[in-house]
Amino acid sequence: MQKTALRAAAAGAIIGSLAYIALTLVHGFLPGTAHELAGHVLGRDWRAIHLGTILALLLWVFAFTAVGSLITTGPGALLARFARPLLGIAFTVFAIDFALDGFGFAQLAEASAHGGHADRAQAMAGLDLLFRAVVGSTTMLVQVLFGLSFAVWAVVLWRARRAPAWLCLAGLVPAAGWFLGGCLMFLRVPGVGFPVVAPLAGLVQLWVLGLGIAWWRQSLGSVTGRQSTGVDRTIALEVSP
After folding, report:
1. What is the mean pLDDT of residues 163-190?
2. Which residue in 75, 81, 60 sits closest to 171, CA to CA?
3. 21-57, pLDDT tens digit by residue?
4. How would you class 236 by CB atoms within 10 Å of its CB: exposed for 0-12, middle for 13-18, buried for 19 or more?
5. Residues 65-104: pLDDT tens digits?
6. What is the pTM of this model?
7. Which has the least CB within 10 A, 7, 45, 80, 130?
8. Could you give the CA distance from residue 21 to residue 205 in angstroms, rounded to a whole number?
9. Are the CB atoms for 224 and 232 separated by under 8 Å?
10. Looking at residue 193, what is its pLDDT?
């Protein structure tokens, strides 16, 4: 059971992270005006990028849930009960945000490119309104919730010894910074924006990839190291002449 859960978590973390990193690079930063945003959206397969990113992060949720299923007793168990629904809530808000971003922006950008003059003006106004509403609400909340979620998970994994201590610390620092930066962005503190938060989110992406590799190695160790456990030694002594 433990080996299966760790390997499933490793696969979800590794595949999800590689896909998320690649799609993030293709997505790029959103420009500041509706006209620039329309060109940015039309220059990419916008719907596919967003759907793929949602599915990639769903693999993250699966990975952490699989590991969390192993943390039922001992240090970190109580905090794990909070960490699992917290990540689920963060993902739900993210999925809604990215669905609005991916589908809504694409629809309005296409209308602004192919409609008549009046239709283009109306589409651009709608694009500008949607951009301000989405980026000014759900997108900011995503930064807060994801930063908090992964900071909590870093502590859970450290307490439960489900990842090396140095790796837990390597995730806790950028995740806590992501959470703090998201709070400051939500509160519209001057000077704090996506150029500040995005590098921290990128470090968390790499951290989850590192977790996937660590979990895979742990799953191998759980097989090769079984004969060295106290239980196995006791059994060996009992059956030996």
Report:
1. 95
2. 60
3. 999 999 988 776 777 777 888 888 989 999 999 999 9
4. exposed
5. 999 999 988 888 999 999 999 999 999 999 999 998 888 7
6. 0.84
7. 45
8. 7
9. no
10. 85
Measure the CA–CA gap between 199 and 221, rounded to whole angstroms: 33
Burial class (CB in 10 A: 0-12, 13-18, 19+), 204: buried
CA dist., res. 121 & res. 109, Å (int): 11
For tokens 């990128």, name the residue: 202
**Which one-letter amino acid corresponds to residue 4?**
T
Cβ-contact 127, 33 below 8 angstroms: no
Of 168, 197, 167, the C-alpha closest to 180 is 197
d(CA 85, CA 220): 29
Residue with tokens 């500008």: 128
- Read off the tokens for 8: 């499933």
pLDDT 10s digits, 113-124: 665 555 566 666
Do the beta carbons of residue 210 and residue 167 sit within 8 Å? yes
Distances (CA, A) of 111 to 36, 81, 121, 122, 131: 15, 46, 9, 9, 15
Using an 8 Å Cβ cutoff, are 223 and 169 in contact? no
Residue 67 · residue 5 · CB < 8 Å: yes
Query: Quick one: tokens of 218?
Result: 């742990």
Return the ∠ at Cα 127 (arms to 125 and 131), rounded to 5°. Answer: 120
